[in-house]
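Hi there,

I know you've been waiting on this one. I reran it after we fixed the sequence typo, so this is the corrected version. Both the input and the resulting structure follow.
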Amino acid sequence: MKPFYETVMAPATGWADVVKTGQRLRVTDLEGLQVVDMAVFNAHNVREKLSTSYSRSRAGIAGEDGFHPRDRLFEGDLLMSTINNEMMRITADTADVKGMHDVHGRMCNRKLYEAMGENDKDGCHEIISGVVAPWDLRPEDIPDTIDLFMNYHHDCAHGWWVLEDGVSKPGDYIEFEALMDCVVALSNCPFYRGTPMKVELFDGAQI
């Protein structure tokens, strides 16, 4: 299966394009341990966008002891919109640690870096805001992202979140099938190692 489109995102850069219904988007970590933030919008109504909360709830498990929204998403799970429509399905996740993609936090940003003593540094929020501007989307329109390969987990004892190295090896990828026409925006996260990531699009008819 050959992609009809491919590019390589340099460190701390972004990418956005329309992924049509049935097409697949693949993000590959070329050198390992890198993270990419991903935002998704309905291409025909950009006010409808990714909801990581609804995505976790949709992946929940109902049992005798009640309903439990999941804390991570795996192959076969769905990305849901802010009005509970199915946007994309995870079709492949090749990293050894499955489902290690943050669906809880907010993107890094200039204010965060300033608080950490790094001035004049764009974060994923600014990067994604820039690449979606052609769709008349503004910074305040950007939803919480799914952060691909991000090792982000909660430390209950300390009451804080822990950010560790990503879980991907060179060549690992995650792939999504579009269930509606989507504007997908990516940011090669500047918080991490700063290595290139490959983006590919596949025609569903070839699969």
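Quick highlight: Residues 5-206 form one domain.

Best,
R. S.
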